Amino acid sequence: MIFEAILLTIITASTPLVIASLGELVTERAGVLNLGVEGMMIMGAVGAFAVAQMTGSPYIGVIAGIVSGAVFSLLFGFLTLTLVANQVATGLALTILGLGASGMLGESFVGIPGIKLPAIAIPLLSDIPFIGPILFKQDIAFYLSIALVLGINWFLFRTRAGLKLRAIGDSHGSAHALGINVIRTRYLAVMFGGACAGLAGAQLSLIYTPQWVENMSAGRGWIALALVVFASWRPWRVLIGGYLFGAVGIAQLHAQIIGQEFGIAIPAQFLSMLPYVATVVVLVLISQNRRTTLINTPASLGKPFVPDR
Amino acid sequence: MTEAAIVPLLSVRKLTKLFGTFAANNGIDLEIMPGEIHALLGENGAGKSTLVKMLFGVLSPTSGEIVWNGTPVSISSPGEARKLGIGMVFQHFSLFEALTVAENIALSLDDNVPLSKVAEEAAALSRQYGLPLDPSAHVADLSVGERQRIEIVRALLQNPRLIILDEPTSVLTPQEADKLFETLDKLRAEGRSVLYISHRLEEVQRICDRATVLRHGKVTGACDPKSETPSSLARMMVGADVASVERDQSVAIGAVKLETRNLTVAARTPFAVSLKGISLSVRAGEVLAIAGVAGNGQGELFDALSGEFPQADANAVLLNGVPAGTLGINRRRLLGASFVPEERHGHAAVPALSLSENLLLARSQSDRAAFLSGGPLGLIRQGTLSDATKRISAEMDVRKASIDPPAGSLSGGNLQKFIVGRELDRQPSVLIVNQPTWGVDAGAASRIRQALVDLARSGSAVIVISQDLDEIFEVASQIAVISEGRLSAPYPAGEMTMEKIGLLMGGMHDGSNHPEAAHAH
């Protein structure tokens, strides 16, 4: 079934976007702008691939990917939260560093066939015609991405810890005055973002294309960043947007075939541009009035916090 | 029960707070009885905030003792203060705009209160004290008065025995303030105590049972405010008699200097106020004061008058009879007008630049010949510039650490004196000032007000946009009120009353023609 095959590719292409974007969403909800998603993702990809090769277990590889992303994000946390460096510059540096370091670390793995994470069929549910094989015969990363959407949504809007995190993102000064530990919460949020980016990277090198290729994140970190804005910092919208962006990415690969089928030639470049255009449109819509800006965007996003001032 | 048997709820003995060698609080004694509203009076910088921060556990005292209910305590954090039963309503609200009312309240409660219960409790409490609140509304959508209610409810949810209110009415309309006073009466009736920080003497006299006055970090008086006069209270606050503004009633009123004709400006941004058909005229010798609650179009009116945003219709604004509606700031300045905007930092002055550089920036176009030599480069005449800086500083009594310090290093009052002086130095025929003494201490404020009155007396027209009603009555010869972008008719200052201003602020523009309207609330 060609339709089913297309849906499966879209899911595989969208999952890393959704996961990385959810991590960044939590980081940004806490008021920290980490532009290093691409770098953390590629570190996760190389870490996951290397450990999977060494241990022979792709699952230990996934854990290694998560840990690599989180540890790498700690560098960002230390620079921006403890040393109060500029978040934008540090994030960009993190991406450049991650791309370079991963290339170096992964040099010996180039060309080695990878270990693919197997799909897990959920009993009974996977027997449902059509949707069963698509939704319930998936790999661990897909299941985790759905669990993350539900979990983060619950955490942010139903728990006190989530409320505190949103409060910090809205006004770190007021949060500090209420006795909330701003720096510690932000460290945790940054590391969560790093862990998610690492998981997304592991998905790339263990599921999407089970091998190590330099720069294999191929700009997905940037799409994940755009996706957070596109979703106006809401987990459910990340899921929807992630699948839209993922589908556009797949369409881009098949632009020529689509062109022939429908008799219209869409340049692949136009399609790769779409996610960013959509993000700009959403930004413009949010900025329409003060109220939607205030309610949607974390007001202290990207602003440095120095407690005793 | 005899007087001696009542244990003070809070007593503070010899409390001192040093910052380096500077004593922000120096041996403060204070007693608050159960069920009283106690005023803490003082000018900006008198040490009120320092004292309150120590009571609320934000700062720790250098020496001295805090006794709560007869037991000496050390309060090392706001959490401990709350546990003792001390609640605080800050002057600058520490609210989260993106969150709902209930979420804001939940954040300041103990972690063991379930989130789902907070909304109910808050709603019940707000009804009980006559502070209507919708728990599910976003703070971003609320007015300043409503935001203050959240702060009060937030404090009340802790069931405090002492509530500290820091300048609570500075942001309220007179009517909203009346509501607040009713709430405070209820709190007192329940036996709770209130520490009420203010520099508004009438309020303190109206609602407070006792007052403690601070000056330069020391207690200068403890009294029953109802048995004092405003001037005796002011004397305790300021130390000497505050120079009240001298007004010469026999000022010659001359020709119209500034006029607007049906000045209408659409809101530039969705959160700005549009100006609706404003017509006003100010004559030489007059001070027109424009009262109003913040956010009713004062900023927009100032921008339109100053030319920061010129109008399409040249005849919307006339300066000395010349149509100036389409002109920008410098062209209007060349016609003899001067402007003092509301924000000192970043609008009236660049904080990082020195006073002389700020002076030059403001006047390099309108007084080019005085400060710049000819030629394409426009070399700065340093001598003239530093003379002018010295002259202005001396004239306005600007106190500064060096000859020409960065503007940002001056206190608010001294910088404002310099900015006003910078414009007066031009001897403008029209001066427009927005919130001239906002956040300025009483001494500087009185100096600035006197300068405005003197300028009018010398034959200029002056417009003062202000939220401070005391200021308005002090300087104005005519008073108008702006409300939702509409300007009321001007009334001679002598015919204006607080109540009438209050009604006009609420948008009742015909208040004077319908006496019964005055009793409507």
UniProtKB/TrEMBL annotation, chain A:
PANTHER family: ABC TRANSPORTER PERMEASE PROTEIN, SUGAR ABC TRANSPORTER INTEGRAL MEMBRANE PROTEIN-RELATED. It is found in: Cell membrane. Its main location: membrane. GO terms for cellular component: plasma membrane. InterPro entries: ABC_transp_permease. Keywords: Cell membrane, Membrane, Sugar transport, Transmembrane, Transmembrane helix, Transport. It is a multi-pass membrane protein. The chain crosses the membrane at residues 30-52, 59-81, 87-105, 140-157, 187-209, 215-233, 240-258, 264-286. This is Simple sugar transport system permease protein. GO terms for molecular function: transmembrane transporter activity.
